[in-house]
Amino acid sequence: MVDDGVLRDWFCKEVLPLERSLTAFIRRNWRVEAEVVDLLQDVYERVLSGAARGLPGHVSGYVYEVARNHLISRARREQVVSFDLVADLDDIMPAADELTPERIATARQELRRVEAGIEALPPRCRQIVEMRKIDGLSSKEVSAELGIGVDAVNQQTSKGMRALADFIFGGRVGEGREGDGGDARRRRVQ
């Protein structure tokens, strides 16, 4: 055990001169500026309690190691979410997967809109989009089944999905989005 007077002298002579660089180190490695001074005091406290058992040989290495370890421990503690907080969130927010009548009605409307958009696609484009996106076939599988090239399948899938997106977001199939030049879009889809 180190004498209090010796410890105080050691701290004032060896540790306090490191304050500016130690503060800069903490500031660089901690995201909340308002907590830097408190963290510095925590590091000093840990340095003193460790040095009370025996003065370290290499002071700056010891001080920075204590600071580093303290920042790591503090960051780990802040990542832990308390059970009380989680319980409170359950009371405040309804479950995201809860099937309310409004969500069911909205989902049905969206599904009807998608079905109508698919029905409005040109027949060949509709067939390819259905095979790729609904049946889950790969471009190669669709290509083999329809006897067309993989590039043609990809091109028709892309055109169909763009036209479908346009339809779902308020237009008609082939109309194009605002500023897209709808005539060009109609030519590309068909």
From TrEMBL:
InterPro entries: RNA_pol_sigma-70-like, RNA_pol_sigma-70_dom, RNA_pol_sigma70_r4_t2, RNA_pol_sigma_r2, RNA_pol_sigma_r3/r4-like, WH-like_DNA-bd_sf. GO terms for biological process: DNA-templated transcription initiation. SUPFAM superfamilies: Sigma2 domain of RNA polymerase sigma factors, Sigma3 and sigma4 domains of RNA polymerase sigma factors. Pfam families: Sigma70_r4_2. Keywords: Sigma factor, Transcription, Transcription regulation. CDD domains: Sigma70_r4 (cd06171). One of its GO terms (molecular function) is sigma factor activity. PANTHER family: RNA POLYMERASE ECF-TYPE SIGMA FACTO (PTHR43133), RNA POLYMERASE SIGMA FACTOR FECI-RELATED (PTHR43133:SF63). Belongs to the sigma-70 factor family. ECF subfamily. This is RNA polymerase sigma factor. It comes from Brevundimonas diminuta (Pseudomonas diminuta). The lineage of its organism: Bacteria, Pseudomonadati, Pseudomonadota, Alphaproteobacteria, Caulobacterales.
